[in-house]
Design goal:
10 helices; alpha/beta; globular; two-stranded antiparallel ribbon
């Protein structure tokens, strides 16, 4: 039985808040991990798993499922928490994040047996190439399922991204939708200081993609953007989603230093309070 789609943006917002709270709890328990983008992309993942994607948590290997490729593997806390909330495994397992012998490693590992993981990710710049291969396979086999690739804006500094982009356009992979987490932050600072990637929209257009922009922290805009992408024919689509790193915790929002920093256990209650008030 396919997962039920939730259309109420108020309900989606509630789910996002609960996911953010458990991300904070899991990271604090682990004592290491990546907070910023996990919180920033939560609304995108909530929209995907509870409204946009066709998937079945009771049958993770369902052949006709949509595929989500998380290229930025360090955002694993968000992927794990969303999968748990979508019913792929028990939420109690979230507290084993980054523990020895846990299925919830610091980066997703398909070989650990965690249901819902499509790609063992870690080395940035590779996920889009995998997504292109999957989408091409679907096209050749006349499948209706779609591929959703999630990439960071820092990844746009990788040459492999643009090789994959060129291939996707050449093969007219309109069953592929990429999303760029445009939070303007990466591990060493703001993207414009580390390696400027603008004009980002023009670059993707030049590589033959349909480009859509949205507020990546607004469920209605996210759903609308994906609806446009899914219904666009003849080209792959990319959504440039403007997000806030650390979204929901006002005290850390838009602070690149929280890329790979986690809350102390004594900060958990305060961070959760900020999420509830957001």
């Amino acid at each position: 039985m396919k997962n039920k789609k939730i259309t109420s943006t108020e309900e989606l917002k509630k789910i996002s808040k609960e996911i953010r709270k458990d991300i904070i709890r899991g990271l604090a328990q682990a004592g290491s991990g990546h907070t910023g983008a996990s919180l920033g992309l939560t609304d995108v993942f909530t929209a995907l798993y509870f409204n946009i994607m066709n998937h079945d948590s009771s049958n993770p290997k369902w052949e006709d499922r949509d595929r989500l490729i998380l290229s930025i593997g360090h955002v694993a806390p968000l992927l794990y928490t969303t999968l748990a909330y979508a019913g792929y495994f028990d939420k109690a397992e979230l507290m084993t994040l980054r523990k020895l012998n846990s299925r919830l490693q610091g980066h997703p590992d398909k070989n650990k047996g965690l249901p819902g993981i499509e790609l063992s990710a870690g080395s940035l710049g590779q996920g889009l190439s995998v997504a292109v291969g999957m989408a091409l396979s679907g096209k050749l086999d006349n499948k209706l399922w779609r591929v959703f690739s999630i990439n960071g804006d820092g990844e746009m500094q990788e040459g492999s991204i643009w090789e994959a982009a060129m291939s996707a356009a050449f093969y007219k992979l309109d069953n592929l939708t990429g999303l760029i987490d445009r939070n303007h932050c990466q591990i060493d600072g703001k993207t414009y200081k580390v390696m400027k990637i603008e004009p980002l929209e023009d670059k993707w257009k030049a590589f033959g993609w349909n480009v859509i922009k949205c507020n990546g922290n607004n469920h209605s805009e996210i759903i609308n953007a994906y609806d446009k992408a899914i219904n666009f024919k003849g080209k792959p689509s990319v959504i440039i989603a403007e997000t806030l790193m650390g979204k929901g915790v006002k005290s850390i929002e838009d602070n690149y230093k929280w890329h790979g920093k986690v809350p102390l256990k004594e900060q958990v209650d305060d961070f959760i309070r900020q999420i509830e008030e957001d």
